[in-house]
Amino acid sequence: MQQQTAPQPKVHRFRCPGCGADLQFAPEGGNLTCPYCGRQERIEPTGASVEERSYEQYLQAHPDQLGTLAEGALEVACQTCGATVTFTPPMVAGECDFCGSPLVAQPRSADPVLAPEGVLPFSVTKEGAAGSLGKWIASRWFAPNALKKFASPDELGGVYIPFWTYDAYTASRYEGQRGEHYYTTEQYTERDAQGNEVRRTRQVQHTRWYPASGSVERWFDDILVPATKSLPPQRLTALEPWDLQRLTAYDPAYLSGYKAQRYQVSLAEGFELAKQAAAPVIEGDVRRDIGGDEQRVSNISTNYSAVTFKHLLLPVYVGAYRFQDKVYQIVVNGRTGEVQGERPYSFWKIALLVLAILFAVILLALVFGGRR
């Protein structure tokens, strides 16, 4: 009996009605655009809304709740840094946007993921991102001249980065102490300008502490948690704010011509990070509730309920370059053009500045010394 092979998944491509080429999403107009004949096709609204999902129901995702980001999507893993990106043909993997290494592994069919609820489409073009990067590099005086070559559209890759958002109602019980200041008058002696010993008085602050306990409540809306481990969280945080009010329901058309990273932080891991983000806010509520002039907080116990989440894809231009055997990352907000990243320091530029300062000091000393 002849063994039947499983049918290969159909690759979903957006074809140009004019010339048959593959359409790509164009940030400048928000449409699918043909790179050859320039024809534009509007992405029709799906009518779906970006809905919150129940955290408890989706914590153990069932197969029917999983899917690929696009029909026939491929994914490839970087063997250097471990990042996995998803893309749709005819796009090719090329180099890893996160570390700059060649992607030598063969792309394969993308594994199912918890489907994204929403996406913020790119609104900054590659050229616009490269322009922002060029200004950022120009403001780094001690960066090597070789870094200027990096401010090119070809050096940046558009990647949709995965994020989780969490909503939750919190009820927190606390124990601590309230400190109230009071003042006493203290006498002391010191010497005046003539060297005479004089007696003076001053007010000295003291604190009385009283036990305090109680409860506070708060509703958290859209705690944003990066679901990638390929970029430092603090760098992504520095790209904020994101205009999440402009989210649109996910449509594979927005992925055309771009890559998307699959989440590396699970839904449950993300919620623990969301709790860490909420903790200082809750502590601030506790301190205000305790009142007084100072507060000591010894214990906070928080219960989370009505927890919902969204899986979002947010647009980031990512670039990585190597300088003296070290990898440096650059990220650009695909909505605002905000740039964050690392840069090396040029030893020669710093040395020249030090020499210039020393020369200026010596010159000034000779000029003013010669006038005496």
Number of helices: 5
Residues in β-strands, percent: 35-45%
What is the C-alpha radius of gyration, as a whole number of Å? 29 Å
- Write the element-wise H/E pattern from the N-terminal end onward: EEEEHEEEEEEHEEHEEHEEEH
Average pLDDT number: 84
Helix-strand makeup class:
alpha+beta
Overall 3D shape? flat
Total count of strands: 17
Describe the structure using short key phrases.
single chain, 372 residues, alpha+beta, 17 strands, flat, disordered N terminus
Task: Provide a descriptive summary of the structure in words.
The chain is α+β, with helices and mostly antiparallel strands and 372 residues long. Among the domains are: 11-44; 53-165 and 214-261 and 300-351, no CATH class. It is built from five helices and 17 strands. It has helices at 55-58, 126-138, 233-238, 267-290, 347-370, and strands at 24-26, 31-33, 40-41, 53-54, 66-67, 74-77, 84-87, 108-109, 113-114, 118-119, 157-191, 197-226, 248-249, 259-261, 294-323, 326-333, 339-341. The longest helix has 24 residues, at 267-290.
